[in-house]
Amino acid sequence: MTHVVLVLTPGVHLLDLAGPAQVFSTAAELGRAYRLSYVGDQERVDSAQGLPLSARTEWPPDLGPDDLLVVPGWRCPRRTPGPPFTDQTLARIAAHHAAGGTVASVCSGAQALGEAGLLDGRRCTTHHELQDSLAHRFPRAKVVRDVLFTTDDRVVTSAGIASGIDLSLHLLAARHGPAHAAQVARNMVVYARRNGDEPQASAVLRYRSHLNDTVHRIQDLIDTRFAEPLTLDQLAATADVSPRTLTRLFTRATGGLTPLRYQQTLRLERAEHLIAHGATTETAAHEVGFTDPRMLRRLRSRTAS
């Protein structure tokens, strides 16, 4: 069971909170072991939009490295000297990361991560209107501009408001694979999913901005089995259409990719992720289904050029 703890403060933006909460609760409904808790320094938390919320003042006692803390943003952070959290709450956030856990923020929630000492020397982002303030307050942070989210050593930060959904889908893809993240997004009717600056997830997040259910079903299959040999005839039979029809539907929905090119793109991006984490080209090629490492080298060369 993975515990997702959302840390609330007065003035919290509802969508900053609701986006991640919906993603992980949907993942739980689809069979993943997630449990959500809402904590704060006080039991009643008035949102920026006027809706009162309830929070627990006692933190879950059994948080471990697999659990996740999420700090949603709040209204008008620039008018206050710092995040409206107690030192005790900031210390809990820092301690969770020190124990091997992941800490994430949405929008101005990055200010709390900075106050907890988690942004020093790390890449981070926030809402575009708050980036200058974040960089000024935390000069050792590496503020990345114009991206939806960043991840650096289990510190994950996202831009404003709706980007918390993109961040949460990215975390699901990293934990359970792109197919599960795609399933959650489809359940939420979030077809136009957007990628942050992590290229290994971009194909899944970039080529789903359509409403063709036949193509989504084939993408789900390819996402799950991208390392296996999949012929166009097999895919067409799964969709109960002819190979020609499937190719036509797929290229129209994805903006020009054939099913096999889509599979190849998934393989390439997964291989890039493995190589970035220390794998050799030969090992990465084998892991993603290329029988000849030279094919992977050629694809990487084309992408680089």
UniProtKB/TrEMBL annotation:
Keywords: Transcription, Transcription regulation. CDD domains: GATase1_AraC_1 (cd03137). Residues 216-305 form the HTH araC/xylS-type domain. SUPFAM superfamilies: Class I glutamine amidotransferase-like, Homeodomain-like. Transmembrane segments: none annotated. InterPro entries: Class_I_gatase-like (IPR029062), DJ-1/PfpI (IPR002818), Homeodomain-like_sf (IPR009057), HTH_AraC (IPR018060), INH-QAR (IPR052158). It holds the Pfam family DJ-1_PfpI. This is DJ-1/PfpI family protein. It comes from Streptomyces smyrnaeus.
